[in-house]
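Sample pair:
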Amino acid sequence: MNGTNLIKIALRALANNKLRGFLTMLGIIIGVGSVITMLAIGQGSKKSIQSQISEMGSNMIMIQPGADIRGGVRQDASAMETLKLKDYEDIVNETRYISAVSPSVNSSGQVIFGANNTPSTIYGISPEYLDIRRYKVEEGDMFTEQDIQSAAKVCVVGKTVIDELFKNGENPVGKVIRFNKIPFRIIGTLESKGYNSMGMDQDNLILAPYTTIQKRILAITHLQGLTCSALKEEYTDQAIDEISEILRRNHKLKATDDDDFTIRSQQELSNMLTSTTDMMTVLLAAVAGISLLVGGIGIMNIMYVSVTERTREIGLRMSIGAKGRDILAQFLIESILISVTGGLIGVILGVGASLIVNGVARFPIYIQPWSVFLSFAVCTLTGIFFGWYPAKKAAQLDPIEAIRYE
């Protein structure tokens, strides 16, 4: 019996039980659709995180005072005052793999203009901070080194602060705002960057000279951090080694002493977040894949029922010359047709569901071709695997006993 006839017989058998065939496919449809949707959401989250980290500066390096102690251990207050201006100056002058460095001090509080006020954070930095963090001045100017030297009370503000304080739409440049009772004149505004991958508003900030924040708000001489950028992302490790060597020398640490500072790179953050996302994607896909297993069991169950119902038909076919392999192929083709058809519908459902999630929930998605091919291949193998045993049982029936079957 040739393959064309076997396919026609299988299609005719499925057409005679359309509803049962569709219900059998349903497990495969839901399984394939769920796997594609979950993988699309997981990969979309990964791409979004990588994109936003890149916008923040994929070659960015952050230096904080204090050792990298974890597990809730509290450090002495003096351990958080280890970074000095000399550390900043030496990193600027001595490193080869660093393109820009900015000191960092900050304070949170209420910022006020007229009758309007809003909570925000003021960051004391140098002009290089804009290049490191990929911020751009939209209107006005950035403060200068002269402003830093004189600890001038000038600032550049983000869009969220502007929206909260200047609700009538007036131009904020030149206006004087107060942060914790200290006046600051706005000399520029920043382009909007929106929220980052961790849900933080990147526009709710005020940038001012670091000397101004040190002297007029915090009354400190040490730095709360340093923000750097490597020449290129691939030079990040060399840059970290250089910084570590300079800081250990300046802080007079012995070879046996632990670092009294912590260095973090965007590369490290990116690897941590993407590995977490990958793990969650695999978990979601595994849960969705259970539907494929359930669908496969449904195929096996229905094929068993089909063999039982058509026992006499099998006996007649075998009595007129059909071989066991023909019967095996007939039922195996039925099983594969069910799984492949279900897989095709599942692919359409999965892609459609992913687009709906993106359109309605505004959740980032990324449908990779391999996830579609993999889901389709798995559902085809599921049809073969779960259809084989019932088909083999049908092929092993005794023709005489099969014809007598009631």
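Residues 83-259 form one domain.
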